[in-house]
Amino acid sequence: MSSKKRNFKSKESTITCHVCKKVMLEQNFSTHMRNIHNSNETRDISQRSIAAMFPSEKRPRVEQALSPNMEAEDEQLDSFTSLSCGGEAAKTLELGEIQDQGLNIFTDDGCNKESSGTDADVTSIAIEGVYESTAEDRPESTKTDILENEVGNLKTDLSHLTSAVEYMKAEIIELQKSKLPNSVEVTEQRGSNVQPREATESACDQYDDDSVLLKCKDIDDILAYFPEMELIREDLTIICRVCIPKNKMRLVCPTGSALPAGMFSVRESMDKRDTDSMSRAFRNLKISISRHLKRDAHQSALSQDESMTIKMKNESNRNNAIALRVGCACYKIYCRGRPYTDYEGEVFLLHRCGVDVGDINHSYKFPQKFLESVAEVVKDNVKDYLRKPLPQTGFAPPVKVLADKATYKHRTRQFVGLTSVIPDADDLLQYMFLGLPVVKSHTGEGVGQSIISVLKEFEISAEQFQGGSFDGQYFHLSVPEVLNTHFGTEGKDASVHYDYDPMHKAGLVDTHIREDDNFKFLNKVTGVVAAVFKNFNWGKNYEALADACESLGQVLANPAKYSTTRFANSVRKVYMNFRKDYRAIVQCLEMTKTEKRDGDSKDRQKAVDAEKFMNSICNAKFVLRLSGITDIYEKYGELVNVVQKVNSLPHERFDTFIHVCNKMKNMSERMNHEKCDAKSCSWPVYHDDIKQLDDTGEYMGVPIVDDHDEEGPNVTRSLARRANANKAENVRDNVSKQVLLLITRLEKDLRDQVFSQSDKEMIEDTRLITDLKTTAVRIKLRGAILISNIERAKYITTLRKIIPSVKEVPDETIILQFEEFLVRLEKVVRNKKNDDLDSKELIKLFLRSDKELYKGIEMIIHSICVSAVKISVESVIESLTSKFEIHFNKFRNVNEDTAYNEMMVSVNGPSQAQCDKVVMAAMKQHFKGQHGIRFVRRSNDISLFATVGVSDNSKVVNRMLQEKSRLPFMQ
Asked: What is the pTM of this model?
C-alpha cells in the first residue's frame, strides 16, 4: 500500500462564508454555519446542487436573466438570505418578516433598504439564492431552451413584482405616517446612549419600529422606546402588555410550555451593554420583537389598548375634576367647623347646578376619612417649611414658641403654636398651629414636656428656638427652665428670651387697680351697670328695651357685663354700651315703675327694683363717672389691641404702646376742656357730657335733677351723714378728682409693668437691626458708607449678643455684608419719601424671592429675621382656643385626632380660593393604593344603585331627589 496519504478536497480547498464573508476550510463550513449563524446549512451556496442534474426543473440565476439595471434589486433580495440566518429559515419567511429582515436590524448597513415583492415571488427568489448553482455549470444543450423559456416567464413575473413593490412601498409609507408621533421623547435609562426619536418633514425619513430597534443596544433601550414591552426579571421574560396582561401571564404560558406570541425569552447577559457588537441572542430577540410588532393580532390589540388608554385617560381626567370639586366642598366644611353631614347637601347643590359630581363617595362619612389626608398634607408642608433652610438666609426659619392651656368639655388641652417670619407673605410675621395635646400632668415639668413633645414632632432645633411667649402660670411653674434644659440654653444664653404676654399684664394692671380702696367708685359704677344689664339681658325686659331703642330711633347695643376671664379690652364695651342705651334703659325703668306699682307682690317688687336702679343711675355723679370711665377705657382698649398684634416688629409694638401711654398722660394733664387742643379733645365723651349737662340739664336726652344718689328707706345714720357731707362738695370737682386719679394710676402702672426691664433691653437690641426706616432716613441724609463706618462696631456687638448662629462668623464677613446691605438699602429708598417708609415693608422687599436682594447678604437678612421674632405675643393662642370652641360646640362630639386634624387644616391651610393644590395632593394621598382617584362607577351593572326614573347613579343624590316636602303644596 502506498505510503502517500490521500488529500481530501475539503481539507485543501477554502471557501468564503456568504453570510459573514469569512474565509475558511471547506470542511469547517458546516460547523461555522451551525455555531455562528445558527443554521443547518452544510455547503456553499455556490456549489452545484443536485437539482442541476435535472435540466427540466432548473431555472437560471436571476442575474443571468435580468438586465444590468436590475442589479440593485438583486442585491436587495440577496440581503434576505444573509438576514435569515441561512437555509431552512428562509423557506418559512413571511412577507412581514422579510420586510423586517430587509431593514437588517443587526447592523446599520440595511437601515435604508426596502423590501419588496409578493409573498410567493420573494420567497422563490430567496430560495433560488440559496440553492441554485451558476448558469455556467448547466449542460450547453439546454442553455438556449431554458433561457428562452425563462426570459418569457421572468418578464411576466417582473411585471407582477414591480406592481407589488410599488404597492408595498405605499403601504409602508402610510403605516409609518399612522404610527409615528409628532415628537417622541424617551427617558434615557442607565448608561443609555439612545437618543429620542423626532419626526421629520419627509415621510421617507420618518422612523419606524425597525429603525428604532436598529439603534437599541440593550434591553433597557427596548423598554425605553417601546412602552408596551415589560421585563419580568424573575422569569427572564419580556412580555407585550397589550397582547398579554401581566396578571394573566401564568394562564397563557404555564411553566414549561412554549412561549406564546407576545412573550420573549431573554438572558442575563443581555443586560450587559456592548457598543462594539451585540450577541447573537440579542439580535434574535430584536428580530422576534420586530416580527411581533408587525403581526395583525398585535396591531389590533394595540388599537384596542390605545382606545382603552384614551378611555382611561378621559375617566381619569373626569375623576380628577370631580375630586377637586368635592374636595373643595370638604375643605369649606373643615374651615368653617361645620358638621360633616353638610357634605351631602353640598354635593347635592353642585349636582342641581349642573356640575358633574360623579357617582360615589357622596356619603357624610367621606369628609371625616378625607380629613386625615388633608391634615397630613398641610402638616407635611409646615414641616418642610420649618425644616429646610430659607434661601434668603441659609438657615432654617427662627421661631418663637407660643403656648396656652384651655379647659373645654371636661379636658384640659395645651394649644401649642409658634411665630415665624414668612417670606413672600402679605404679613411678614405669621403664627402657626402645631398641636393641642391633652395635659395630664399640671406641674412645670409635665407642661414643659408636653410642649417639647410637639416641638420634637416638627423637628424644631435649638438654632431655630428663640424663646417663648406665655402667660403668668407658665412662669410660676418654671416652664422656661424646662425648655432651656431641653435646648441647652440653661440661663447662659442671653439670646433666648421669654416674654410675659403684654395683654395679660395689662389685664393684671386693671385688676390690681380695682382691688385698691381708692377706686371703689370704679367698682360701684361697674356693679350698677352689670345689675341693670342683667335685668334687661333676656325675656320680656329685653324685648321692652329693644322696642324702646326702636321708638327712639337708635340701635340697641348688646348688654355686656364685666368679666375678669375675658380679654382685657372687653371691659370698655361694658361702659360704652351702657352709655349708648342709657336713654332707652331709663325709659323702660320708668315704665316698669309706673305699671307695676299697683300689681301683685311680684309686680310691686319689680317696681321697687326699677326705682332703685333709677336712683342709682339718674344722678350727676353716676353719669359723669360713667362718661369719664368710658373715655379712659377707650384708650385702655386701644393699648391692649396694640400689644396683642402679631404682625408687628418688637420696637414697633413697644413704640405704639408708649404712644398710647403718652395719650393717657395728656388726658391727665388736660382734665379741663380749656386745655384740650382745638382739633382733638383728650376727653371727647367726658367733656361733651359735662357741657351738655351744664347747658341743658340733660344726659343723653334724660333730665338729671339730682347730683347724688338718693337715700333709700334702709340707709343707716352713718351713710346719711356721709351723703350730707358729700352734698356740700361740688359734684363735678369730686368726679374730676376721681377720674384724674384713675387715669394717672392706670397710665403709670401700664408704662411700668407691661414690659419688663429685660423686655425693654431686648427691644432696644432688636431696634438696631430691624428698624430699617430709621436707618434708611439716616442713609438718605449721610450716605451708606458713613453710616456703615459709624454703626458697624455696635452692630457686630449686638449681633453676637442676640443672634447665636452668627457667633462663629468672622467680623470681616459681617462687616462686608453689612456694608453691602446698606448700599442696597440706599438704592431701594432713594426715590421714596420718608413718610412712606415702613420697616416691615422694607424687610419684605429684601425677602422677596423674585427680587433676590438677599443674595450675598444672607447673614444680615438672617439677623433681621431672628430679631423680628425675639418679642412676640401669646394672645394669638387665645384666639385659637376660641376657634376650637366654635368648631367643636356641644353638638359636635369628635375624638382628639379629628379635632387636631381639623384645627391643623383650618388654621394652617390655604384660603378656600387657593386650596386646589392641597386638595388634589390630599386626594392622591387618600386614594393611594386604590387604583387612582375614584368618583365614577366602572361597573356596567348600575341598576342596583340607580333609582327608577332617575338618571343619576349616586345613591345620595337619588335619595335627596326623592325626598318630599313636608307641605306638598310648596313643591
From this structure: 0.69
